[in-house]
Amino acid sequence: MRSVKRGLLTLVGLSALSLAFASATALGTTPLASAATTSTPAVVHSCPTTPTSGHFACLVLKRTDAHPQFTNQAAPNAIPSGVGYGPSQLQSAYNIVSQAASAGGGKTIALVDAFDYGNAQSDLNTYRSAAGLSATTLTKVNQNGAASPLPAAPPANDDWTLEEALDLDMASAICPNCHLALVEAQDRKSVV
Known about the structure:
three-stranded parallel beta sheet, two-stranded antiparallel sheet, alpha/beta, globular
């Protein structure tokens, strides 16, 4: 079971990393308008905890120098053009547009992350609505596969909620018909 969890997390992490590079390369675009004029983006770590050998780490970087201009007031939650990638761009980058439209029903993508992400369902629904996808039900379980008790919220110095949000949003974008299960480990040491 431990190697399955490790494999799933490695697969998810590598998928997210390759997704970012493949999407940018395949589309030949810059995700943010400010990226074209800034040689070194200003970033902060979402989870500043130093990675420890044998434990998984949240490696999310947040841009602090990019402030998108929202011009479409008719759809305030829509994903702004030129600010990140939505489902259609991600599916095009991987040449899976037709499969994403028809496949995935009855399939489950399990994502393993640390700590509880209390707003996971509502944040996922907000993303899916902004991306033009229908709402979905997210299954959350603890590291033992039980619906309760869920782990505690992440400590302020190790906030995994952004990592979990990115994982859920990207899995949802790539396979909008798939069911999503979020496996929440007690802490970052328990993920392995």
